[in-house]
């Protein structure tokens, strides 16, 4: 099975984030481990083994030091096609509702 993995970088005290990269991979221990090996971090908030073994679909970490504009941490989030589609549909419905409200439609 394939999964979508999004890698976000966080800044400050995790009050700002940006999507760093996104990729589709086969959901295997080797692929998940490869993702973690590509990340430089000082502390992780989640179990590396749980992420690698597929027991967890998220992995949060922090970094020390760096300049004011360097990331202070980040996280990986893995989605199945169905889960990501549901998340996107939920976001779309929310934005559509907001737009309809602004234009006074659907009342």
Describe this protein with a few key phrases.
alpha+beta; 3 helices; single chain; five-stranded antiparallel sheet; 107 residues; 35% helix
Helix and strand arrangement:
Elements: E1 2-11, E2 16-26, H1 29-37, E3 43-44, H2 48-52, E4 58-62, E5 73-79, H3 81-103
Antiparallel strand pairs: 1-2, 1-5, 3-4, 4-5
Q: Helix/strand/pairing class, anyone?
A: alpha+beta
Instruction: Compute the number of strand runs.
Output: 5
Largest sheet: 5 strands, antiparallel
Question: What gross morphology would you assign?
Answer: flat
Q: What is the C-alpha radius of gyration, as a whole number of Å?
A: 17 Å
Span from first to last CA?
A: 42 Å
In the predicted model, the low-confidence regions spanning at least 5 consecutive residues are none
Please give the count of helices: 3
SSE topology string = EEHEHEEH
Helix content: 25-40%
The percentage of residues in β strands lies in 25-35%
Structure description:
Strands 2-1-5-4-3 form a five-stranded antiparallel beta sheet. The chain has one domain (2-81). It is flat and about 50 Å long. 35% of the residues lie in helices and 33% in strands. The model has no long low-confidence stretch (mean pLDDT 94). The protein has helices at residues 29-37, 48-52, 81-103, and strands at residues 2-11, 16-26, 43-44, 58-62, 73-79. It is of the alpha+beta class. A hairpin with a 4-residue loop joins strand 1 and strand 2.
């Amino acid at each position: 099975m394939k999964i979508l993995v999004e890698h976000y970088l966080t800044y400050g005290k995790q009050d700002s984030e940006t999507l760093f990269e996104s990729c589709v991979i086969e959901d295997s221990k080797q692929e998940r481990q490869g993702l973690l090996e590509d990340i430089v971090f000082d502390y992780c908030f989640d179990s590396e083994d749980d992420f690698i073994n597929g027991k967890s679909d998220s992995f949060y970490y922090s970094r020390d030091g760096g300049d004011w504009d360097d990331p202070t941490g980040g996280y990986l989030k893995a989605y199945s096609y169905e889960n990501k589609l549901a998340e996107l549909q939920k976001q779309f419905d929310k934005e559509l509702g907001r737009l309809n409200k602004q234009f006074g439609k659907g009342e």
